[in-house]
Amino acid sequence: MRIVLSLDEQGKIPLYRQVIDGIIAMIERGELSPGAKLPSTRELAEDLAISRFTTSKAYDELSRQGYIDTSSSVGSFVSLKRRALDRVAVAPLGPVDDDEVELDALRLSDYGERIMTSCAIEPSAVELFEELNFSAPDSDLLPAAKWHELLVKCSKERDFNVLRKPGDVFGHRALRDSLVDYLARVRGIRCSAEQICIFSGAQSALDLLSCLLINEGDRALVENPGFPGARRLIAAYGGSVEPVPVDSQGLVVEYLAEKRLQGKFIYVTPAHHDPTGAVMSPARREALLAWARRNSVWVLEDDFDSEFRYSEKPLPTLQSQDRDQLVIYLSSFWKIMFPVLSLGFVVLPPRLVAVVRKAKSLAERDFHFIEHEAMAQFISEGHLERHVRRTRATYARRRESLIGHLNQRLPGKVRISPVSAGTHLMVHFEPEFQEDLILSAARQSGLPMVSTGAYYCGSPNERELLIPFAHVAETEIEQAIERFSEAISGR
């Protein structure tokens, strides 16, 4: 079917929001009935003469709000749940007594009160960027058919009576065994299955580790700029954040000794620094491990974006070079498989295995057995590595297209990071452009872009922005850059 909407491309309301509002209005007027099939994001983009990024963004938000259901294999439909929701009468809330609010606050733990009142805990918006597609891959590139095949196969082959018994809180053994071999091949990590702990996602793993390592008043060190989610968790457990500068070789280890910094742990992204893309040099890696040994500091190594390098081979992990059992290796399948799969995992130093096992049994002791079994087979049969190779090749072409069109349309107006890795490009605009003008032009043209300001502790770099390319087709990149260059130049 076709959807006809009236869009104001010169208006103040973003195009994706106009699409959302238009489709919601059609649903509420009954023009789109529950169960009605919607056009694909590509078809809708063609019908409305807008970018596919805009329609994908609109569908994602409609799905999040429960208006539509989307499947990578069958398409998008108006949610059947809307019919049931329309019939539910919602009782209005009565007046809330101020004394009751104070009493409820008194019943909270220190942790509960801290996360509700502390100014040090930044809002979640600082780490969840729609413009970056929430760091998820292009849904069109997901191995949906193979994943579905393995899920069905594992469901048919398993004895569900066996699944009644509690499993290992560290996760399904077959998946951990597969990860042992996989990590040895692709990241040079030597470990046993007993050291690998599976989580529902990387953030839940980082949360548990922060809980175990941070007491109120403790200090933890982070990259500056760096991943805001790490700062938020440190603050949530009462710790204080000590920012450490980053340059073209990654975290400046010399700064640690110069300032005589101490902390319970240091959080780093050495494979591909978030957000600059810098790769920590071999000399810096050796120096960081030596500093951690001298000062008895845990090193949380987030192997962010290690799968997507387009020229040089990735350097060995810190974990593979650690001789003192101080490195905790953290990774996930988010950037490769979400929303098909969002599992995270850690490789623990042997001396942390017992405490993490006990803590995880209190917080997250169950897992989806079939999902773990399917992922074990997906890895052991080589599908994961083939999928990464295919997506890496596609991302490399999109990255080159983005760089080429930026240089062609805005010669001398923008400096592009030379780092050949990751799923977004860091760019610096010349002083003649104001950042709010740049972002406004990006929104008008349908070019996904976000400021790096949220990544900084303290004053950010002006006119420093990230442009994602992983989920944007090459033709859409070209068209968006053309519109953006015209908008920012006032033509």
Q: What report would you give on this structure?
A:
This protein has helices at 15-28, 41-48, 52-64, 81-86, 98-106, 110-117, 144-157, 173-187, 202-213, 228-236, 253-258, 282-295, 318-321, 334-337, 353-363, 369-380, 383-409, 435-445, 474-489; strands spanning 68-71, 75-78, 196-199, 219-224, 240-247, 250-251, 265-268, 298-302, 327-332, 344-347, 414-416, 424-429, 450-451, 464-468. It has 491 residues and is α/β, with parallel strands linked by helices. The chain folds into 3 domains: 15-86, Arc Repressor Mutant, subunit A (Orthogonal Bundle), CATH 1.10.10.10; 130-135 and 386-489, Aspartate Aminotransferase, domain 1 (Alpha-Beta Complex); 139-381, 3-Layer(aba) Sandwich (Aspartate Aminotransferase, domain 2). The strands form 3 sheets. An 8-stranded mixed sheet has the order 3-10-9-8-7-4-5-6, sandwiched between helices. α1 (15-28) crosses α3 (52-64) and α17 runs parallel beside α19. Residues 83-94 and 96-103 have low confidence and may be disordered.
Task: Write the topology of this structure.
Elements: H1 15-28, H2 41-48, H3 52-64, E1 68-71, E2 75-78, H4 81-86, H5 98-106, H6 110-117, H7 144-157, H8 173-187, E3 196-199, H9 202-213, E4 219-224, H10 228-236, E5 240-247, E6 250-251, H11 253-258, E7 265-268, H12 282-295, E8 298-302, H13 318-321, E9 327-332, H14 334-337, E10 344-347, H15 353-363, H16 369-380, H17 383-409, E11 414-416, E12 424-429, H18 435-445, E13 450-451, E14 464-468, H19 474-489
Parallel strand pairs: 4-5, 4-7, 7-8, 8-9
Antiparallel strand pairs: 1-2, 3-10, 5-6, 9-10, 11-12, 12-14, 13-14
Helix pairs in contact: 1-3, 2-3, 7-16, 8-16, 9-10, 17-19, 18-19
